[in-house]
Amino acid sequence: MEKINRRQFISQFGLATAAMCVSPRFAFAKPLASDKKIRLGVVGGNFGLGFFFHEHPNCIVEAVSDLDTQRRNKLMEVYQCKKSYESLEKLLRDPKVEAVALFTPAPDHVRHTIQCLKAGKHVLCAVPAAMNEEECYQLFEAVKRSGLTYMMAETTTYREETMMAQEFYRAGKFGNIFSSAAQYYHPGLETLYFDDNKKPTWRHGLPPMLYPTHVTSFLIAVTGERLVSVACNGWGDGSPLLNNNPYGNPFWNETALFRTDKGNSFMGEVCWRGALVGVERGQWHGDKMSYYSEYKGLGSHQVVSSEMQGKDEGGFVVDEPEMHFVEMKPFWKTGLPGKISHISGHGNSHCFITHEFISSLVENRKPGVDVHEALAYTIPGIIAHKSAMHDGELLKIPVFD
User: Fold this and answer.
1) In which domain of life is the source organism classified (predicted)?
2) Which of 138, 179, 197, 363 has the smallest C-beta neighbourhood within 10 Å, fewest atoms?
3) Rounded to two decimals, what is the model's pTM?
């Protein structure tokens, strides 16, 4: 491992590399002892094509569904499934389907999840869990009442960078984490505002903080903290593209300062427009070590406190911590069963999401991102947007624990 000081880091960043070996983050990432098969229905042929249920030794894709014929046929092809339905409602009548993976538009998530639960099906649902406070409560009560398994398919929780941060945290490497930050930048999202027929999609004018989970999970999945208050600021430029959007949203970008239940600070930012590189990244700042995740080829690195000191440009004494470039370990090689052990989308998270949902059903246990965790990721953004619409008013965030 190469050690460099602060000035060397600035001049050499992106050029040096050093390997760091850590053990696998997820205890569940191992072959299952059971040969039980979960019969799954996959609904939604856009994002829903990016998972690997057909490769999991404990899963059979029993049926697929999409309103569009072409997407439905593509689902059948990808998941090697011969049965399809024209709607979720028809799929839910199939007695062989035990669980449903929902990849439908975000405004439909709660309604569709509740439909599945009422039909006696376990649910894996794309993000976000809900779009407003009322839906959060509806979802929470529906899952609790059903006694069935609900999991949200949050990719950041299962990114390799997050896995590494959890390893550091569990080993006590950070010391005390006193602040953290995360950014989700997706400039150019307006290309998804309208379909090929110029009809508005559900993304038209979507408030950035109503899609917060790629940000909030960087902290919550590592430390388990809950975000309890927020002040948020929004930025818009008066673009006509935002006119008449169903959310009444004037903002392209939103920046929020959260307080955690441990009294720590967390800054979260979701941006749809600007001179920004598209990225999902996290930072964790501790009194012993800080860690900064990968940023578009610039690498991940850690900063470790030391006894070394130097002087700044004004001649004042300043600490000179050690800085290490960190090469990501290929976590996907460390125990995922059979054919599903390979690289995948969103920081190699898709195979882990697939395995966690299926294994939680086989082992009859709570999944990593259950309804408590899903709402902890989701509702802070809902309240943050509310704050932005009220000129940055400090607001409390409900906690579903």
Assistant:
1) Bacteria
2) 197
3) 0.88
Q: Name the 3-class secondary structure at 125.
A: strand
For residue 91, how far is the Cα from the chain centroid? 27
Beta strands in 272-364 (DSSP E): 279-286, 289-292, 300-304, 309-311, 317-319, 322-326
φ/ψ of residue 34, rounded to 5? -85, 150
Beta-carbon contacts of residue 18 (< 8 Å; ≥ 6 apart)? 1, 2, 324, 325, 326, 327
Q: What are the phi and psi torsion angles at 11 (to 5°)?
A: -80, -25
Q: How does DSSP classify residue 140? A: H
Q: Which long-range contacts (CB under 8 A, 24 or more apart) does 336-342 make?
A: 336/29, 337/30, 337/31, 337/32, 337/56, 337/57, 337/58, 338/31, 338/55, 338/56, 338/57, 339/52, 339/55, 339/57, 340/52, 340/55, 340/56, 340/57
* pLDDT tens digits, one per residue of 274-317: 999 899 999 999 999 999 997 666 667 676 777 777 777 777 87
Alpha carbon distance 304, 346 (integer Å)? 28
* 330 — pLDDT class (breaks 50, 70, 90): confident
In DSSP terms, 233 is beta-bridged to 255
Backbone angles phi, psi at 40, to 5 degrees: -115, 145
The CA distance from 316 to 325, in Å, is 27
Chain Cα centroid distance, residue 370: 13
Which pLDDT value is given to residue 128? Answer: 98
> How many H helices and E strands in the chain?
10, 17
Q: Which two tokens stand for residue 250?
A: 């004037």
Which of 351, 372, 364 has its CA nearest to residue 29? 351
Residue 314: count other Cβ atoms within 10 Å of its Cβ.
6
- In this predicted structure, the answer to whether residue 2 has a pLDDT above a threshold of 60 is no
- Which of the four pLDDT bands, split at 50, 70 and 90, describes residue 31? low
Statement: residue 188 has pLDDT above 90: yes
